[in-house]
Amino acid sequence: MIASMSDATITVEPLTSDDALTLIAELNAELTERYPDPAHRFFGLTAEQVAPGKGAFLIARLRERPVGCGALRRIDAITGEIKRMYVSPSARGAGIGARLLAELEAHARALGLRRVVLETGERQHEAVRLYERAGYAEIPRFGEYENSPMSLCMGKTLS
Fold first, then answer.
1. Concatenated DSSP letters of 74-108
2. pLDDT at 3 over 50
3. Prediction pTM value
4. CA 150, CA 157: separation in Å to the nearest integer?
């Protein structure tokens, strides 16, 4: 049974925390299964990129159990990138992904960013639907994803 949203908490945590490392390992394993070719996977994120004043790394918990994560890193003066979005399979369908995304957007606004972009893969239909429901639209591939045919990039202007 999926817990209710009232049981969920989202907090800013270090990228190097045990819970963060566990969630990222789960995410990497799932992406490696979906995209066996290493050229189609982009795992890069450093603690410095999500340090206070530059970005944020969030962990979602249901009844104190870590079940999801997401990151925001600044790309330039007005743009941030959403990275490492993940919700454990056991917690999917409870709205955790949407809450993480909304919290990351709030952090972007607090940093003075006016636009957020992200990369997801064409095999992640559930992620694409989440982003579309949140107002993201497809944009040209950017940065390290520019030459990745499996990458789908999306963006949103923050109000």
1. E-SSSEEEEEEEEE-GGGTTSSHHHHHHHHHHHHH
2. no
3. 0.93
4. 24
